[in-house]
Amino acid sequence: MKRLFLFLIASVLALAVNANDIAYTADDVTIFPNPERGFTDELGGDFALTDSKNHVVQPVEDWYWDEEDENYPERKNQSLVMLMYYLKNYKTKDLSNKILQGFNEDMQILRNHGFKCVLRFAYDWSSKTDATLQLAQRHIEQLTPYLESNKDVIFALEAGFVGRWGEWYYSSNYGNETQELTSNRRTILQSLISACPSGRFLLVRYPLIKLSYLGDEIPLDSAQAYSSSARARIGHHNDAFLNAWGNDGTYGRNGDGPDDDPILRNYIAQETLYVPNGGETNVEENPLASIVAQYDTTMAELRRYHWTFCGSQYAEEVTNVWRTNGAFAEMERVLGYRFQLITATLPDVAETGRGMHVQLRLRNVGCAPLYNERHAYIVLKNGNSEYRVQLASDPRRWLPNGAETTIDETLTLPDNMPEGTYQLYLYLPDVAETLASDPRYAVRFANTNVWDATTGMNSLNASVLVSVPSDLDHAAAVSRPAKMIRDGKVFILRDGKRYSLTGQEQTQY
């Protein structure tokens, strides 16, 4: 009994030194691309698809990715693109196989270049004429399997299909100049929820659309988030950012209330912690732009409503103000998430098949969280040997605007790891098999001396000595290895015995 008591005391004391405490340096300056966030350029413009011109991305592939436009050098920092598919020539007929194949080929180009898209389908940019309910439903039905098979490069699907620009306002078939959720509009929305790829969000133009569809004004909360319910899958896009009259009706009550309703603003502010929000400005009046595009105003709005993406060009009356007052560069940094490591407490010795305790402190200095599913891994690397252990912590819940998250977990190392010294990394790859090994789709942390662009991993600047236990079946109370120092020498304490780091037995208690 005395021997066991002395051993347990020694173990507790030894555990206190069995760790590396690391502090990390934040990088608040560097602008770099990260998946599923940031500024977007729009592709599609006024281009109406035809069977002979059935691509949106392909015609401008070289212009967009391979040549740096001197007017918009920030493209190199983008990872998202806004794709507008105008079905102007298909208002009265089915989509052709050529159109559907063209969409597939566009999605492959995104994969080739490390991009994802915010996606919208519409019928016209110059007219309120859209397709009938029956034909629009048919088009959605045709597109559904193509959306699902390409969801790896789709960040979010915007509702579209109704009205000019697909913005659910000016419409010939669904009620003109209204946000009212008529029977036809409700049917289209339901069809789009069903068509939206599993694990992706459907973004609606006005909060009133979601409120009317759900029949209440209760914002999504943490307990309901990331489920398959409509409440958890419907997000938002605001294409009148900073405009007057409640962002040009975005926060209005459709004539039945204030043009700028604080209840709707609070609703968006609360639930965009769990569903995406983005869009563009449409201010085209220079006097107004110089007022509303002030740095403090812009950043306060982005942070309150958790903006993840924003158009980089339209309307240039505003975006050019941002380019001169510093807001644009700051938006490049903080639109969406921007994770930073603060400290880590990591073991310097561990055993295969046993618990390895890790503690990480991090913050999200971006405007928004991650939204699509993504896992975090501790990776142990020794030469060409690499082992990943998934953390239980969900990166979607690493909240923004400077909030800190502490990850305190005990991870079980694989039984088949060879002994040796392993470097430790934090890794957030894409969950899709098609993108999981592509470092362009992995999340980079905003710290100095952590990012490895060749692997997409973030170095924790620490190593751990992994050994194989002599007995995997003994009691858990004496199974955890501990480091102890005696007579100026370092030993591993395990199974009631003291071992040198080479594994030679020294003393048995």
Summarize it:
The protein has 509 residues and is an alpha/beta fold. The protein has 13 helices and 23 strands.
Please characterize this protein's 3D structure:
This protein has 509 residues and is α/β, with parallel strands linked by helices. It is built from 13 helices and 23 strands.
**Overall pLDDT:** 89
Radius of gyration: 27 Å
Kindly report how far apart the N and C termini lie: 11 Å
Structural class by secondary-structure content: alpha/beta
The geometry reads as globular
* Helicity level: 25-40%
Please specify the SSE layout and strand pairing.
Blueprint: H1 2-15, E1 20-23, E2 38-40, E3 42-43, H2 61-66, E4 80-86, H3 97-113, E5 116-122, H4 133-149, E6 154-158, H5 183-195, E7 201-204, H6 207-214, H7 230-233, E8 234-238, H8 244-248, H9 262-271, E9 277-279, H10 286-292, H11 295-304, E10 309-311, H12 316-325, H13 327-334, E11 339-346, E12 349-351, E13 355-364, E14 377-382, E15 385-390, E16 403-412, E17 420-427, E18 451-452, E19 457-467, E20 482-486, E21 489-494, E22 497-500, E23 505-508
Parallel strand pairs: 2-10, 3-4, 4-5, 5-6, 6-7, 7-8, 8-9, 9-10, 12-19
Antiparallel strand pairs: 1-11, 11-13, 13-16, 14-15, 14-17, 17-19, 18-19, 20-21, 21-22, 22-23
Helix pairs in contact: 4-5
